[in-house]
Specification:
Elements (H helix, E strand, L loop, with lengths): L1 H32 L4 E2 L7 E2 L31 E4 L4 E22 L10 E7 L5 E8 L11 E8 H4 L11 E11 L4 E13 L5 E3 L19 E6 L12 H8 E3 L5 E4 L3 E5 L17 H11 L5 H16 L6 E7 L23 H4 L1 H26 L4 E8 L7 H16 L3 E4 L11 H4 L3 E4 L3 H4 L4 H12 L3 E5 L3 H4 L1 H16 L8 E4 L4 H7 L3 H15 L8
Parallel strand pairs: 8-10, 11-14, 11-20, 14-15, 15-16, 16-17, 17-18, 18-19, 19-20
Antiparallel strand pairs: 1-9, 2-4, 3-9, 4-7, 4-8, 4-9, 5-6, 5-8, 12-13
Helix pairs in contact: 3-5, 7-8, 14-15
Amino acid sequence: MSKKWNQGRKLLLLGLAAITFVMSISIVQADQDHVEPRNLVAGLSYTLSDPPYENYPDSERELTDGIYDASLTFYDPAWQGHLRGKTREVVFDLGELKSISGIKAHFMQHSEVGIFYPNTVSMYVSMDGEKWGTLAHVNTKLPIWESGPATEQYYNWDGVTDGVPAKGHPKATTAQARYVKVTFIAGTFAFLDEIEVWGVDGKAKGSAKIPVDEPAYALAGKASGGIDNLMLLYNGWYENGDGDWTKENIMPYISYVDEKGKPQDWLYDGVLYLGLWYKDWGGNYGTGTANLTAWQWYLDKTFAPEGDLKQLNDATKEAGLKLGDQKHKTKVVLMIPHPGKELSDFGDVDGDGVSENMVSQEVGEEAALANRKKAVDWYMNELRTRWEASGYSHLELTGMYWLAEHAGDSYDKQLIRYTSDLVHDEKKHFFWIPNFFGNQNYAWEELGFDIAALQPNHFFDETPVERLETSTGLSQQYHMGVEMEFDERMIDDPAFRARYIEYLNGGIDYGYMGDIFKAYYQGNTALLDSSRSEDPAVRQLYDWMYQFIKGTYMKQTP
């Protein structure tokens, strides 16, 4: 009996030892699974794409030394200052694979001395330091360009709250990477004093690889409804009548004409009609200060029996006859005015005898949004009815254009998505051309647009020519098209003529001259005037544009 008892005791002890061993492994594994994240770049060196401004230099580890300037004094040595120019990149090599759970960058704004927040701070990760995946684009949450005392802002990405953009891993909370890149653009001066990258060593539970996001322009084609080159023709109210289009004045846009005005070839394959002002400056369609009466006036003008669309139809028909291409149709995009939040008496859009109130402070955000949606519903119904009744033989309604050049708060975004659904219900395409600093310009697909072109704003803002490189770089990173920008000043002013040439040359230098989707802002009559000029130096501005569209343009010296 004692021998059997001893054997049983040994087996019992061995079993207990095995259980203890397994439990110890589980505890160790649990400890590893619950390692507290740390700042992986604390005290780490980094690479800057461009050095800071000489008066606010970098002290090698200034952005990772853990020193924050709580006083927000711009001349404090903790701050690093960057002046305009190209996109700034800060790249960290973490040495080996890590699981990234959060990134934050600390900026200040002090408008009185020309320091402003970046519109967007972008964050990328990579396994090899060459091919990058987009982790997040973080928009400023505080107003830019506003005057006042110095303020501070963190641009944050958090894997738990913001999510990890890894396909097939919806529950991932950390991103696997060895390299991290943070980028921003300085409007004038941009000041930052610290960047933190939080995470743990190795492949953490719940981590995922971020797919490589190769920069690329938006191609013309299916997404653009077949439009390669979209000309903006402004047909709102102008005191001098520049918004009133005639067949003769439209001809040099839809067709390339010789010095006598005779069509020689097709030119712009798409026309966007859009208006800014109601008559006598009675409201702006882009800022939301135009009421229902103004919206009705614009539709009446555009769809009048001899109105702007009729003139475009007749011009296309005549050009087709002269070019031997009578079946050709011009693709048309029509604007949707922005129903803003400033009008408490917009007008009665649903026939209930009550004028819609758009002011959220008076009726609440939800009610104001509902009233703004009613306005868009009314406009879309009117536009559909009028288009169907007009029967234009040589026009094709391709899509709608959202006139506001940025997306504001969450209610603005809801309104844009709602409008996108209405446009797509009509089997049309939804277009957008946000400005360079436009809020949420990178989120155009998420907002429901089919295609978008980014404004460089180089022609107007007197920026260095590097702005074109920066803007087209963003267009590629955000997968957008490009807006070409020029106006009547290029005819008489050498400085503006040089900028026009810079845009043309940029098509070769930065690769957007070919089959990239492009929109064209030309003031009101820049190409019309140059096409009719008897001055060869002015006429060639028009000829260069034709060559640019056809892909035969050769670089000129500004």
